[in-house]
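We modelled the chain as a single entity of 461 amino acids. Its sequence is:
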Amino acid sequence: MTPFEAAMWRAEVDPELIMTTMMIEELDSVPDWDRFLAAMRWALEIVPRFRQKVVEAPFGLGAPQWSDDPLFDLRYHVRRQRIPEGGGWHEALEAMAQLSMSPLDRNRPPWEAVLFDGLPDGRAIFYLKMHHSTTDGMGLIQLLDRLHSDRREHNPDKPHPPVTPLHSLTSWDALRNMVRDDVASVPGLLRGVAKGASELLADPVGSVRSAVDYAGSLYRVLAPCEASGSPVLARRSNSWRLALLDVRLAELKAAAKSVGGTLNDAYLAALFGGFRRYHEALGEDTVDAIPTTVPVSLRTDKDQGGGNKIATIQIPGPVATVDAAKRIGEVAKIVRAARDEPAVDVIGLLSPVMARLPAPVIAQLSGSLAKSNDLQASNVPGLQRESYLAGSRIERTYGFGPLPGCAAMIAMVTYDGVCNVGINIDTRSIADPDLFLRCLQEGFAEVLALGPESSTPVLRS
């Protein structure tokens, strides 16, 4: 594991810091079960990580390591579940929320998949739950792009990589690997020191200026957010509720373009508008801004699927701004300033130190940061082609992040001309979930109204 992934893995000693991510795909039909299982077995060949569990060195020394699980049993990880007769999306989302709140078995590969059937019109849901240390949202989309077919018909020519022997580690193996890797890293560290000294001698003024600039950026990034949490959202729990919101991609892009913003600017502005409306509907004073964390992808075109390659920025989300166009402009300015900070990847800088701390200390540090947020919001480009799973067409794709102490975690995945918004809310922080969801729907509607055409966002809860 990378140090950042190790910190997420160990932070779960705090029961409020569940670090699972979820992805659900709405299918136009129920796949044949045997064909579905065959697709999952093939996925194990293509993505060996699905067969691997996490091994810790004795006494929690060093970073946890991935090891092939010699006792891997697909029947534990993949199952099917039927929605009760007469049920629909509400019952399905309730079932998925219950699954999502349950911790993963840390002695097995940290993922589970469920095929739900019994939805109206013969539809089905593919539900995938993974530990965040396995991958971030963009990495998961890249994995799905490799695993999903571009046709409904069975493809007998799918590639099958050569079978490799299992490589299973004990905890003492993990300790030896840690010592070996630490020793191997010394030459690289020395080369880095030598390079820095050489640059300092070659350009002392420029090197000092760069160091001062970075130190200033680091101070700004680590400083407390300008916004304090809303009193309305102050309480926290481990009770989750999931909901879905569909917005036409072309309409949200057009609304953003009409005021010189980006899709992400319009998306965040819609969320902040929903939070403002929720405060107003409760008869509470609206705070000027809410502390919001937004992930920034550090992936390049050369990166493979899986893993975590993100930085995070914390911004004051301007919820008090009533005018949607003005709010988009404010969001654009705030987000760009935060993204352009030289020290934006401060997590990458601090993670090697954090990963070596005792798990309770990691949880305390992570919790103090995560629980200061009222909202975490992400935007992930989905699959860029029509996709199929075991013969069923994928109609919608939704991502759900965990709730590591924030009031709401909202993720937007764009796929097939639709912005699929997955909403995960803490039902103690947001005491009236139905009202909050309607307010979010209205927040998107007021942003869409800026464009030449707008339709009502579709809410399913």
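As a brief sanity check on the tokenised model: The mean pLDDT is 86. The radius of gyration is 23 Å.
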